[in-house]
Specification:
mainly alpha; two-stranded antiparallel ribbon
């Protein structure tokens, strides 16, 4: 890599000297003024990591867990009020099948869209919003809140705690020329 780098730098210097219009910047100038400093900065951030306050993150994890349990309890209570004797203990509110059965089967709400894979009613957030706002279904609003809270907890707080458990820092991979997220 070092040998290739030296050869490329020599070639870039030749190209930059051949530029007649001095208002145009050479690739070498761009590399020296932007790419190399950013690469150095990103490598430092990647190696050093970004500190995660473990105490705060743990408190946030606990609070989100309590909030999730509160929403689940509210959904179960509402379902038991609307459908006395229904078994809410075996429902999985993370399952599109169970959510679809509740909103479409029990409440009789219309199917807004079906999934391509198995032709079941889609329970995306946008559909839950419609069921909540347009059809005035409180369960749909609570399920939307549950989805938001669960995603925040699992995708951010739980993962941050897991990934920073070694040294209390997150060590991301930074790429100057990429567009990957995650």
């Amino acid at each position: 890599t070092v040998a290739i780098s030296h050869a490329q730098r020599k070639e870039l210097h030749k190209q930059s000297k051949s530029i007649k219009d001095k208002s145009k910047k050479s690739i070498m100038s761009l590399m020296d003024s932007h790419c190399l400093p950013l690469t150095d900065l990103f490598s430092t951030i990647q190696a050093e990591g970004v500190y995660v306050d473990q105490v705060y993150a743990s408190q946030l994890q606990e609070r989100l867990s309590r909030d999730i349990e509160g929403v689940v309890t509210s959904v179960k209570t509402l379902l038991q009020e609307d459908f006395p004797g229904c078994d809410t203990e075996n429902l999985n509110f993370s399952s599109d099948r169970d959510v679809g059965n509740i909103l479409i089967g029990w409440y009789g709400l219309p199917v807004l869209e079906t999934t391509a894979k198995d032709n079941l009613p889609s329970m995306k957030g946008v559909h839950l919003k419609v069921y909540n706002k347009k059809h005035k279904n409180k369960v749909a609003g609570l399920l939307l809140d549950l989805t938001t809270l669960s995603k925040a907890k699992s995708d951010f707080v739980d993962k941050f705690l897991h990934l920073s458990s070694y040294d209390e820092k997150l060590h991301g991979n930074y790429s100057l020329f990429g567009t990957t997220t995650g």
